[in-house]
Design a protein that fits this description.
This protein is mainly alpha-helical. Helix content is 75%, strand content 0%.
């Protein structure tokens, strides 16, 4: 189900981007982002971190920092809190 959701999300993003270009508006202004961390985002961060940790010689902190740069400070705090709750 999450693959189908991701497909529709990417498609909606593409349509919004096309509309914004036609109207001459910046794309980020037309997309409403959920301010809270979703389950899919949490597991995407976790899975990406695990995959990159196994396949890379980089420091684990550097890997996580690179991944989290894509997210807002609120989502990063929510990820940290949820990760801590899962590992206690």
């Amino acid at each position: 189900m999450s693959k189908l959701k991701k497909f529709f999300d990417r498609r909606n993003e593409g349509l919004a981007r096309e509309r914004a270009e036609k109207e001459g508006v910046k794309f980020k202004e037309t997309v409403e982002e959920n301010p809270n961390l979703t389950d899919d985002e949490f597991w995407a961060i976790s899975n990406q971190y695990m995959a990159e940790s196994k396949n890379s010689d980089r420091d684990q902190v550097e890997i996580l920092q690179t991944i989290l740069e894509q997210y807002s400070p609120l989502k990063i705090k929510q990820f940290a809190k949820r990760y801590e709750e899962l590992n206690t």
